[in-house]
Design goal:
Blueprint (H helix, E strand, L loop, with lengths): L1 H11 L7 H17 L4 E6 L2 E5 L4 H9 L4 H10 L5 E5 L5 H9 L3 E5 L3 H13 L6 E4 L2 E2 L4 E6 L8 E2 L6 E7 L1 H4 L8 E4 L5 H6 L2 H5 L5 E5 L11 H10 L3 E6 L4 E4 L7 E5 L2 H10 L13
Parallel strand pairs: 3-4, 3-10, 4-5, 6-9, 10-11
Antiparallel strand pairs: 1-2, 7-8, 7-9, 11-14, 12-13, 12-14
Length: 295
């Protein structure tokens, strides 16, 4: 069933619309490679970026099969950001968004990744792209207060905060986003993917959220907050009060479409739509991977 879901995702992915069989062939080639080659592979991501891929990194292998795994959100980042902007990648994992922001667009990035083994993969991707001067990476978690929390450590892209520690968890230093950003400029874009802990992260980011220089937030609201007793509708209402509105984005048409509420995957919240649309419409074309496709 899991394999079927993966193949269905690849087959129906927007980037693969004109070559569905080719996308399935890329999947098959990677599966064969995993069995024959135990070593990491450096794979082209966009024209100016690349990433290190190895077996088990599900958050990165999707970019092999689909060009940009999270097509709407990654496409939005590529079209919206500009050189020297500040982007904050919360829950950076191995750094897909960080790489796109700093290696392709040449923006500055603050990347937050709490799991030490994943953080090392993030650091490797920063090094392979030679963007050490553009990225400041923190091996911490974010929350509403400074302290320590237990995280799962073996669930790849879905590692998350847990109440009690055990052999499959790790204790991690935690800070607030407002504390981290005290000595730097305000970001224009934040991505938050923290597997249900979004409410706590936003509680620790009140000053950042209130600053009008922050124009967009990509946030995952998929019901995972229920595990901590949080209602994600409250996040939606909080962002509305701060003049953000939820949008979907079509990178092929460069078109924003306002939504009534958040999606069950990532949602893009935008403040000052006119500013954002102007950037989207005037950004350069981005070449994806080793294909001839651009967005």
């Amino acid at each position: 069933m899991k394999l079927f879901k993966v193949l269905k995702f690849i087959y129906n992915h927007p980037f693969n619309a004109d070559n569905k069989l080719g996308s399935l062939w890329r999947f098959a080639k990677w599966q064969i490679n995993c069995r024959l080659n135990p070593y990491p592979v450096v794979y082209p991501f966009t024209e100016h970026s690349k990433f290190i891929i190895r077996k088990g990194l599900t958050g990165a292998t999707g970019n092999i099969y689909c060009g940009l795994m999270e097509f709407e959100d990654m496409g939005f980042l590529l079209h919206f950001l500009r050189p020297k902007d500040l982007f904050v990648d919360i829950g950076a994992n191995v750094g897909s968004y960080t790489i796109l922001a700093s290696a392709e667009i040449f923006a500055d990035t603050i990347a937050i990744e709490p799991i030490p083994s994943t953080y090392q993969n993030l650091k490797s991707n920063i090094l392979i792209n030679d963007i050490q001067d553009k990225v400041k990476a923190y091996n911490i978690g974010l929350g509403s207060n400074k302290g320590k929390l237990n995280f799962t450590k073996s669930l790849d892209t879905i590692n998350h905060v847990v109440s009690n520690g055990n052999a499959n968890t790790i204790e991690v230093e935690v800070n607030t986003l407002d504390n981290i950003l005290q000595q730097v400029e305000v970001p224009v874009l934040i991505k938050i993917d923290v597997e249900g802990f979004e409410t706590e992260v936003l509680h620790g980011a009140e000053n950042t959220l209130a600053n009008p220089e922050l124009k967009a937030i990509i946030i995952e609201l998929n019901g995972s907050g229920n595990r901590y007793g949080y209602n994600e509708e409250e996040i939606h209402q909080k962002l509305l009060l701060l003049d953000f509105r939820p949008y979907g984005y079509n990178p092929k048409e460069r078109k924003l479409t306002e939504r009534k509420s958040f999606n069950n995957l990532n949602t893009i919240y935008i403040r000052n739509k006119e500013f954002v649309e102007n950037r989207i419409n005037t950004s350069r074309k981005i070449k994806i991977g080793n294909t001839q496709k651009t967005i």
